[in-house]
Structures are given as C-alpha cells and as structure tokens.
Amino acid sequence: MKRRRLLQSLMASPAAAAAAQAATPPPAPQAASPATEQFPALKVTAADAATDGVIYFFSSEQFLALTRLCEAIAPAGANRPSAVDADVPAFLDFFIGQSPAATKALYRDGLDRLVRDGVAGASLSALKDSWSCAGPADAFARFLQQAKNDILQATMNSREWAAAQGRASRRDGMPTGYFWRHVD
Amino acid sequence: MVIIGSGAGGGMAAHTLTRLGVKCLMLEAGPLFDFQKDRSLVNLPDLPYRGFGQPGRFPHVVQASELDAEAWADEQQNPYTYPKDAPYYWVRIRMVGGKTMRWGRASWRLSDLEFACKDHDGEGENWPIRLADLAPYYDRAEPMFNVTGRNEGLRQLPDGKILVDDSADSAPVRRFIDSCKKLGVPTTKPRRATGTLASSTNVLLPGAIETGNLQLVTNAVVRDITVDPNTGRASGVRFVDRHSKRDYHVKARTVIVSASALESCRILLNSTSPRYPKGLGNSSGTLGRYLFDQFYVKNTVMCEMNSPRGRGGGYVVRFRNVDKREKNFLRGYTYDFGCGGTPPARYIPHYGEALYKELDRLRGASFSMTTMGEVLPKYENHVRINKDVKDAWGIPALHIEHKYGANEHAMAKDAMEMAEAMCTGAGFTILGRHAQMVPPGESIHELGTVRMGADPKKSVLNGYNQSHDVKNLFVVDGSSFPSGGAQNPTLTILALSMRASEYLADQMKKGAL
C-alpha cells in the first residue's frame, strides 16, 4: 500500500465501513450458463500505483537533494501536484539508475554539487539562461537543464497530474495512447 | 518470382505483379502485426517509464516511444557499425508493411530538377528517367493512397492526382503565408496519404493476396541471393527462420529486392560468388556507394505566435536555385510548419512557479518549422560489409559511413536565417533558432547505394530498376535513387516499383526473362 493511502485508510472510520457493507448485501450466487458465460475482464493495478518502489541508485544525501530540486522546479499549484506529490524523486532514482553511464554520472555529480552548495536560488541560476541548441558548456548547468525537463515530464505524466487535471476540468484528465504489443 | 520485403516497394511490386497473373512469394523478415488486435488503449501514467521509454533500448531510434517500442527493429539483434566520429542513426522496422507501418504519409512527387539534376547545375548524375516517364505511375499511386493536398502548378513540386484540400487556413498560418509571399517563397498545404494507417498492409497486400497469386512468408530473414554459375543469373534466395534459425532456400525465376535501402544493399553485398566477388551486380564498383538521405533540422525556429492564435500547418516549397543559381550552395530545402501547441519547457528560462506561469501563458502559442534539405550523393559516403560483426542469425552486418558536407551545412544555415525572416515577418517572436542537423539516417529517408543510371559503369541498375549485370534481379526501393531532392521519398518508391513491376511482367510475357 502506498504511504499516503495508508494514512488515509487509518483515518477512515471502521464503523462507517461496516455500515457500508451492511447496506449492500452480496449478490446471490448464480449458476453459470455455458451459453452466456463470459470471461470476466479483471481490473488490475500497476505496481507503482499500489506501492512504493525501492530506492537503490542515489545515496540518501543525493536523494534528499533531488527531492528539494523537485520541489524547486515543479512545486504544487491550485490544480496541479508537485513533483514530490507525483513521486518523481523515486521514479528518477529508478529511471536514472537504468540509464546510460553518462546520464548516471551527470545526475550523480550534479546532485553531489547540490548536496555541497544547497538547493537555493544561487545554485539554480543556470535554469534562467536562455535556450541554445548546443546547450551549456558547464556540466552542472547541463545537469540542471536535463533535470528540469525530466522532472517536469515525469510530473506531467503521472497519475496525480492526470487526476488534478481531471478535477479542474470536470473531465477525465487521464492521457491515453495506443500501446503496440510484442508480436513474434 | 520472389519478392524480398513487404513495405512500400515490395508491397507495390506484389500488388502489381499478382494482378498481372504472376505467382509471387514474398519474404518478410518480421512478423505480421494486426493493427486492430495488437494495439490496446492504455493510460500513459501506467507505463513503467512514464512515457520516457526504457533507457538505452534504442540509442539510434529517437522516434521510438514507450507506446510503440515494439514496432522498431531491435538494435542488439540487428547491429551495425560506423566511425566513432560519425554516428549514423539507422532506423528500421521489421514487420509486414515495413516502414509504411509508421511513416508520416507525406507524398510529394520529385521533379525534373531532381531527375535531371546534372543538367540543371552540373552536380552528380542524372536519373535515367524523367518526370514524364514516372508521371503515369504517380498518377495511379496517389489515388491508391488517397493523397490530399493542393496543386500549385510549380515546376519544382509537380502537381498530383490528389484530393483537393481547400480547407481554410487559420489566422497565424495566413500571416505566415503572407510573410513568405513578400519574400518570394511559395507555400502549399501538406500533401499526404489519408487514413490512420495508409500502409502496404491495408492498401497493397490484401488485394495481392486476394488474387491467389501471393504467398507471404513471415519471419524470413534473408541471407543472400544465389546465382546460377552457368548463366550468371539469380537462381534463388537463402533465408533463415527468425525463431527456429532453420535455413531455407527458395528457387526464383526473378528476384525483386525491396528490403529498405540499406538492407537491400547489404543483401547484395553479402551475395558474393566467384562470378560476383564484390557483391551481386557490382561490376561498376558503385554498389554501396553514393549513400545519402535528406537532412533534417528539427525546430529550426521555435516561435511564440502573436494574437489571434490558431492551429494548423503547411509546407514551404523549395525556392532556392530553382530558376537561377543563387547562394553558396547547390540545390534547395523545404520546411514543414505547424502551430497551436505549447513550446517545450526547455525554451522557457524559468523554473518553479514562474515556469508554470509561462507555460500557461504560452499554451497553444507555438509556431515551429522543421527544415528538410537535399543531400548531395557522394562516392565517399558508403556502406560495406563488416565481417567482424554479425546479426542474431549470423549474417554479416553493415558498416555505414556518412557525413554531411559543406553544401549541407551552408544550406542548413541559410534555412535557419530564412525561417527567422519568415516568422518575424509574420509578427512572431523567436524563442529559439538553430542550424544543427540531426545525425545522418535519423530522417529515415536513407537513399542510394544501389543507384540506377544510364551508364552501367557508374550505376547498378538501369532505368527500370533492373540490374545491369543480372537481368533477372530488380531492386525497387529507395536504394535505387541517384538523387532525392528534399521531398519525402515514399511516393516515388511506390511509383518506381509499379513501373518496374509492369516492365518485368511484360518482359516475362515476351520471354525475355
């Protein structure tokens, strides 16, 4: 169970849950007719919607700096979750941990510098530089630019973002797409 | 008749020949993908990589998304090499339909500026055919793919048999077109095949199979083409089953190769014999040479539109070096343009609340242009077999060497400056501009290496896509192009394949094959 949902369930009233169960008696079992029997479509849950991933790639200091960077780059707003609400630090620990060596080094070195200098306005000044195709020459500035894009995209592609957008527009905010299955 | 490949070229060959009563066996290296059954609607946040895709899975396929990753050929199973300082992005699809399963459907004709390019500016080689030779086949291919667009009567962009797109342009598109007019630059509507899937699998192959004359074998990875040592003609095709790795040989009266430009060249280079020690049909020594594509500069300019905003897009027609020689480069370029999205966050020099405010302000305000430029075919840009590297089926891999030269760099710089002039003339604010071409290959318009030509000493194929050396061997994909302009090549591949197939059937009827 996700940490946030565990808190919510502990706060729920056991009496209310019992009353809800009593109000909706279970349906009587029916014999399945071969002619009408259909294979049921079972609802399944993605692993990261049910629980938290294990943090394995970044050190605890680096992970804390990444969490603060996420808060700085993508804070919560009226109709949007923060990157931290959307579990982006944990996702990036997983995602960068699987990335090519150059990306891993860029992130680790960049986060080490944030551990040293702190996540403050001065250390993030490169994020206010204008875009150039070649990108910044400085590796720390390149890290910040990539982290900004990654954090923003991971936030906007989260369930939490979709839910907030859905609440704001009164429509289902869940983005969908056609997935190509593996065919042999 | 054996046809290698089921994409635009192979699909059209099968479609054409089976209707003329020719029995065909088609070999496709990949599986059959059912566009209806094998795709499912998913919630993007449920994807394990949140839409980023699995890191490092496709280092050379920027087009692969987490949704369609299974569509693209696996890079580990299908390795290739290139010089350390010249990366080549070879983008492949191995399934029935080939790259028509994921193409952008842009469908332009080439003009005599391309077919007779040497006559025009002295560079390169002319094609052995002209627009008049291919026009009747363009005329038939366009309606098959329900191509829409607008005919403009321009010599550099021939009119087509197309469904007329007379839809109204949005206000910002009209402002942009007016700005282009002031600069003497022609524009037109996009011209593209219609339908969610305008592919060989739904347009070409069903009819071919219905005739009863086509057998389609999937998961058939071709090793090489065998030769009768007495006649020097192609005698059949050796292939290996993708799963079991069992080897097969199929006899063939005629072989049509259309495995995509570089795969076709690879098959011919791997088809060596005492009679053809340098590769099949390579008496000219040009097999593998004159590799080119069309260079892309993605988002040459990214702009913020002024009000009123709107959506839509279009195409800027080639305007350089058409009626007179101008600038410090040969040939020309085109652009796709589009508007109505939100500029990517990288263009916005803020973070936190300020970044979100800018993204809100710029929602629907983007106007961007992508340059597509002609690349000069050069002898030194080539592919060859790398015997040290083999694919998952033990077939020697390709080594690819392709660098853009001074002409392409000068063209890309001019395209950036002109794009900026067009956009500022329309009142747009430039957020970013650049002239950095994507690596060769990334446009997925790789062309040449088995080029056609009038002179057998300078080319591999004649004007009917038929080998000069091996009369019962035809190559009908983009590898046959001697030059390619800046127009997307698929429509020309379709027309060439149809023309070659009708010629081939006629030759068979006459007993010449």
Regions of chain A with pLDDT < 50 over 5+ consecutive residues? 3-21
Morphology of chain B: globular
In DSSP terms (H or I, runs of 4 or more residues), the helix count of chain A works out at 8
The radius of gyration over CA of chain B amounts to 23 Å
Provide the helix percentage of chain B: 10-25%
The CATH architecture name of chain B reads 3-Layer(bba) Sandwich
Regarding CATH, which class of chain B?
Alpha Beta
Radius of gyration of chain A: 22 Å
Largest contact between protein chains?
A: A-B, 47 and 45 residues
| CATH topology-level name of chain B | FAD/NAD(P)-binding domain
Strand percentage of chain A lies at under 5%
Give your account of this protein's structure.
The complex is a heterodimer of chains A (184) and B (513). In chain A, 51% of the residues lie in helices and 3% in strands. Chain A is an all-alpha fold. Chain A has a domain of 115 residues. Chain B has 513 residues and is α/β, with parallel strands linked by helices. Chain B has a single domain, classed as FAD/NAD(P)-binding domain (3-Layer(bba) Sandwich). Helix content of chain B is 23%, strand content 20%. In chain B, the strands form five sheets. Chain B has a six-stranded antiparallel sheet with strand order 6-14-15-16-13-19, covered by helices on one side. A five-stranded parallel sheet of chain B has the order 8-2-1-12-20. In chain B, helix 4 packs across helix 10. The termini of chain B are close together.
Key terms for this structure?
heterodimer, A: 184 residues, mainly alpha, elongated, disordered N terminus, B: 513 residues, alpha/beta, FAD/NAD(P)-binding domain, six-stranded antiparallel beta sheet, five-stranded parallel beta sheet, 10 helices, 23% helix, globular
What's a concise summary of this model?
The complex is a heterodimer of chains A (184) and B (513). Chain A contains 8 helices and 1 strand. With 184 residues, chain A is mainly alpha-helical.
